[in-house]
Amino acid sequence: MRRLMNEGSLDPVITVTPIDTINQEDCGTWTQIGAHSATVSMARLLVPGKARGVYLKACGELKKKKLDDAQRDAQHAVDAYHEYPAAWVLLGQAYYDGNQLEQAHEACLQASRVDPGYVASYLCLAAVADRQKAWDEAQTQSNNALKLSPLKNAYACYYKAEAAYHEGSFVDAEKSGLDAAAADSGHQMPEIELLLARVYSAMKNTDAAAVRVRDYLRFAHQPADPAAVSAQLAQITASDDVKPGDTAAH
Length: 250
Hints:
By secondary structure, this protein is mostly helical. It has helices at 18-23, 29-35, 42-45, 49-63, 67-80, 85-97, 101-114, 119-131, 135-148, 154-166, 170-183, 191-202, 206-219, 226-241, and strands spanning 2-5, 12-15.
């Protein structure tokens, strides 16, 4: 909120600033980065109230994992205002969460078309490419996102690190992974720690790998597969205990 003066009057009036409406676009993950981006297009400022209201409804449904409802209402939001990049990304996110990757890609590609400066669309495209194991595309879209929003962009750094790891570029993967961890100061993405553990394990740095696995277990409220993670930690620790010249027990 900010105070403006009526023309020809000394009485201040309260008005809603653009930042208030942009903050409403934050629906977690990629739109969270978009809401805090340094650049805001006119298309995002001119979203009609009706479309924004439907968007907020879809956002609430997405958070409750009601994916069909979120897809329906996000579609209604873009039908109400076709130039609504956050709604296109929200639609893509609902499809992505439902593992409908082609539909997610198309929705987020449309977001990039209606607003090429909206960073969340490239994060969505990078995430889809990551899940599809299209590592070159994941790198490209991560770089596009980082060009627009280089600070505190944990998602872009994570997808970039993941792609580098799978391409065998472990030094680059470590750098991007550490950038992601630094950007994720609230530990909202504990999977960064598991990625760094895999990177360090590949680099034969078992001490660092074990630390990252333990950090994952510490940060993750609900580990995706606690038994598998514990087994990974045990494997890393066991390999660290093997000294040169040791022989297997008979």
